[in-house]
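ARCHIVE CARD
Drawer: 12
Card no.: 0347
Subject: one protein chain, sequence and derived structure
Cross-reference: see card 0346
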Amino acid sequence: MAPVNLMPQKMVTPVIRRIAGILFLLVVIVAIPASCSEQGRYRALKFFFDGVPKPGAPPPTRGYSGCSSTTIGKT
């Protein structure tokens, strides 16, 4: 028994394009308000990335504390 094709090949491309268009519009609709305020920008960045500093927090220190190049390899 042959499998039943529920979605004809002619409809696949328009359906995919419609879904891609809807997803693009959703991203744009979310991105525009998120770019307006500092809090909104923080929420959007926090959703996509780990380690986003909170608004108003002091900048993180760079480098490793307690380790310098003069002490590496010495016993």
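Annotation on reverse: The first helix runs from residue 9 to 34. Helices lie at 9-34, 38-48.
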